[in-house]
Design goal:
Structural class: mainly alpha
Helix content: 55-70%
Order of helices and strands: HHHHH
Bound molecules: zinc ion
Mean pLDDT: 81
Number of domains: 1
Oligomer: single chain
Number of strands: 0
Radius of gyration: 14 Å
Low-confidence stretches: 30-42
Number of helices: 5
Length: about 120
């Protein structure tokens, strides 16, 4: 199990979430888009990796029991490592902005994985 395997799996999950979001009624895009900031306008490589790892984490959160549990501890480890590399408070600022983007794009809460709601990620990955 390596970095690529979990990123590939996460991308498949993310594509499913995005497709499902297209068909979900009663979801108001404008409610969060205005708060999305350009945190990653010129992302460094570590920030790109950090974003990919967070997307994987959020995708597996949304999948719940369907997610491959073997990947979850690895993704968590990667996120912790990348927070160190990106550094705080930058890592948290990026995470909050990307969490809102994630919700806008997939319609799933990054914190609990539920569809149609958004809970602010407060601490940790
Ligand atoms: Zn939630």
């Amino acid at each position: 199990m390596g970095e690529m395997s979990y990123l590939d799996l996460a991308k498949q999950v993310e594509a499913r979430l995005r497709a499902a979001r297209e068909t979900r009624p009663g979801y108001e895009r404008n409610e969060v888009t205005k708060e999305v900031t350009g945190a990653a306008s010129a992302p460094a490589l570590t920030e790109t990796l950090y974003r990919a790892a967070l997307h994987a984490w959020w995708a597996f959160t949304a999948e719940g029991a369907e997610a491959d549990a073997a990947h979850v501890p690895y993704v968590f480890q990667e996120i912790v490592r990348l927070i160190d590399e990106v550094g705080e408070p930058r890592a948290s600022e990026c995470r909050w902005a990307w969490a809102r983007e994630w919700y806008v794009e997939t319609g799933c809460c990054p914190t609990c994985g539920e569809a149609g709601v958004f809970h602010e990620p407060e601490a940790g990955p």
